[in-house]
Amino acid sequence: MAPRHGAVEPPVGDKPRNYDQMAGSRRLLRRLIEVAAIPLEPQERLDRVVRMIATDMVAEVCSVYAQRAGDLLELFATEGLAPGAVHRVRMRVGEGLVGSIAATGQVVNTADAQSHPNFRYFPETGEEIYHSFLGVPLLRSGRVTGVLTVQNRAPRHYSDDEVEALEVIGTVLAEMFASGGLVDPKVYGYIAGLRRESYRLEGTRLVEGVAIGRAWLHEPQIVINRLIAENVGTELNRLDLAVTRFRASMDELVERPDLGSGEHRDVFEALRMFAHDPGWVRRIRETVETGLSAEAAVRRVQEETRLKLGHVADPYIRERLQDLDDLANRLLRQLTGQALHHDPSDLPAETILIARNLSAADLIEYDRSRIKGIVLEEGSRTAHVTIVARALDIPMLGRVDGAMAAADPGDLLAIDGDHGHLFLRPTEDVEQAFLSSIMIRQERRRILETQRSLPSVTLDRVSISLSLNAAFLIDLAHLDESGADGIGLFRTELTFMNRSRYPDLPAQTDYYRSIMEKAGDLPILFRTLDVGSDKQLPYWRTPTEENPAMGWRAIRMMLDRPIVLREQLRALLRAANGRPLCVMFPMVTEVAEFEAARALVDRELDRLDRDGLPRPERLQVGVMMEVPALFWQLPAILRRVDFVSLGSNDLFQFLYASDRGNPQLTDRYDVLSPSLLSFIRDLVERCRAAGVRLSVCGEMASRPLEAMALIGLGVRHLSVTAADLAPVKAMLRSVEIGPLHDYLTTLLELSDHSLRGRLQAYALDHGIVLPPGVYRP
Ligand code: PEP
Ligand code: MG
After folding, report:
1. What are the Cα distances from residue 46, in Å, to 61, 67, 93, 269, 465?
2. Which end of the chain is more exposed for a tag (fewer CB within 10 A), N or C?
């Protein structure tokens, strides 16, 4: 049989199978399930199970080890080793043969255990007389949760079919462990793989804050109720039928005209290719032959893939393994009839949403008021979904490995977005600590909110204008009471993403009119459509791109589709109906692009005249500074624009050649680096000299420490997410700009990776008000 561990491709078994052995394994499985049904104490049941396995496999020893807190493996039951060793013998993951199986997830099969390099002797067990050793990992949700071993006195190698049989038994045991039928969690506390345990996973902070709620999986989990095959032939037929249907559904999916031709299609093409891979299905068939039901066999092969996922760092291989995992889920849904997606409207109240990744559009579809927090296995700080979560003030963690597998729907979860911790099924004291932290934060926020009406000035009386970033009508609901000076960035594309059809001229005009009416006299900087890259419209076909972030997006796309831009400008001008209007263009790379876009504004103004409609009382047209090349055309661009808005999210990704959506790079570079800050200092000086207003609307402006650096560099207009307005105002009201400016100037020549630590220390020394936790050293 081909090796099943360490290879990425689904292995192909080409050796004849020993059907006697297979029949034996099926018999054993059936008896296992019978024992599970007998009313016994968990320990007694486990003892019976090991006895049964030993007898059936003609082994003198059969033992089960479970993984406990602190990466320890504990002997939970044995037939053949000294009974006194049970619950006394413990080893670290990585220690001894059993520990090495737990560390690597690999089978150990040796005729001479004592001379194996990983062997370690535990005198309590009396195992020195047994020479042959076979151990398999118990796998659950991509993790090793325990180890199952058999031993014999006579030195011999266990056959491939014996290995396979023990692995299959291991699959069933892992499920039985997870359901609590073999061990009592009340007696033993933490046991890996037992659903009720409470533990903590680490991730990356994407949106700060704390939250507590019930788990909801964006893609529902599949529950396997039938573990063993009643009849192997019937089970194989079920599998074949499901595979045929599932392949047809994959073909259909790829052929769908509305799939477009972008990255999305590539993903499905790759999945279809895997779906037709005979090796993968053959592997599942072989597993059914050992006695598992079709769905349990798919799950078992899936667990092998997940285990590899946990050990592979290469992003390309990881992606392929993720594809296989996806595929297994789709096949499981075909077999079990369980749905692929939830209806977002079914979302319960007080939810923590868990997903591998989400698009901004996915998030927008949910009812925000029901989401308390978000946990992603991927995710990055300046991806648009993160920006939307921040705008909605939803604490969010990213890069939480294994979150989807670790949480069951409805589990209590607590998110500490300040430190990047996810508590699964927290204990009562952790839960209480979270509830009181939420209350303290609400109180703190209430106190901060009272600052809204206070002037936005520094200790040395420098006024800083604070505006809000917005994307939806709902963002304007509290503009009046927010104390903000207006909307410094209105991301028009997000409402386009939220629709199933392209909004026509009347729809856009109505929408912009409502926004302007809500804002009253306060100014709004409307950014024209910034689609492409990670902001795709579901109803537009876009070509496949190698590097979409540097691809056909934003103003580039609009200048190639001038009708769309003109319609948007027309809608804005009509909605303004004579009121002042500010418009800005995203991702402008060179002056010529700005001029082309500006010419479209002029054509629309002429059209307005022809239609007898009023021109805006004052029209300001600006540009976003997001592409470094534009910096070297500043004299020319500053002569043409009414304002510049710095989009630090994109600027940073292009300046650092570091994809903002790539989870691998989230913490690699820091915006508080001497180079980015020097760039901003120069931009500030050039804009000031030209008399052109400069604002910052990227995420930097919303983070109090980063905002402190920005005002220290001379920025006087910040546009922030609503939830961050009060903390940013509290910061600036406690700053004296003069000394901060002088200090920052001395730092910009340093060759440090980041100035964060120095700025934190400066803030601490000078009594500058920053939120607790994240921003303090
Ligand atoms: C930016 O790039 O900083 C910006 C504000 O635009 P967006 O995040 O929408 O790309
Ligand atoms: Mg941008």
Report:
1. 14, 15, 22, 45, 68
2. C
